[in-house]
């Protein structure tokens, strides 16, 4: 028998962060062979301003696609995405570019996609800051301070092409947070790092969240990374499957009552298993129908 409890939704808080609201977000990729691949098939998700969330899920479940849509790098095929007051599904390309340069910063999977290889580490951070409107630029941290925080001071004048994989990863994070975004999105930011460097990178992301109220959403496969986030959202087959709040995991009821079971129950209760739902006081109990009854 499995207990199903209802988790209360976090209320929005007034901070410098941008809230995120996804309603029925669908995304299709058209392959070169002309087939459509459904990457997201109805994502409903709300993230309050200033929340820090780890996006989890099996390979191919749609995490990177969701992050790219939140960052305005790709446009959803259908559904609505709202960042703070901005309905980015309806914004023009120019409006979206303005929002990205002023408020949203995305670190893509693979450090090299975030960096100019022929520029030095410091120049990469400086270039990132040039995208910020001039009026806000004086409030930004100095590139040297940021590089010190990711332990790259000695590599500040080296061209990025001459850095190791782990150093490039840290340089990419420094460039991503250098603009003091209101929404920080990072796809596997710690994937090539040793434990020590991973902890530095995590500390910087959490500091940005704490100091500026930035909303932080990170895709990760690493349990050591997700354990540092107060909220986890697991994407399964292109939908929100599970949510973790302060270490407690909840199944999320999707549109039309669709429910995705946690992995251990999928093994115990294979496709075709019949399950009864019984009310019990304020909660519900799910119980497997015994065979032959
Ligand atoms: N450019 C593309 N063209 C066609 N299909 C794509 C493209 N990018 C992603 N997909 C497909 O969309 C689905 C979701 O991919 P996505 O990269 O978002 O998943 P993911 O959860 O981030 O995976 P991983 O953890 O392996 O990075 C997968 O089936 C993937 O093969």
UniProtKB/TrEMBL annotation:
Q: Which organism is it from?
A: Solicola gregarius
Please report the name of this protein according to its UniProt entry: ATP-binding cassette domain-containing protein
Known SUPFAM superfamilies for this protein? P-loop containing nucleoside triphosphate hydrolases
Print the keywords alphabetically. Answer: ATP-binding, Nucleotide-binding
Q: Which cellular component, as a GO term, is one annotated location?
A: plasma membrane
Instruction: Note the superkingdom of the native organism.
Output: Bacteria
Sequence ranges assigned to domain ABC transporter in this UniProt record: 20-262
For molecular function, the Gene Ontology terms on record are:
ATP binding; ATP hydrolysis activity; transmembrane transporter activity
- PROSITE patterns from the UniProt entry: ABC_TRANSPORTER_1, ABC_TRANSPORTER_2
Q: Name one Pfam family in it.
A: ABC_tran
Which InterPro entries does the UniProt entry name for this protein? Answer: AAA+_ATPase, ABC_transporter-like_ATP-bd, ABC_transporter-like_CS, ABC_transpr_LolD-like, P-loop_NTPase
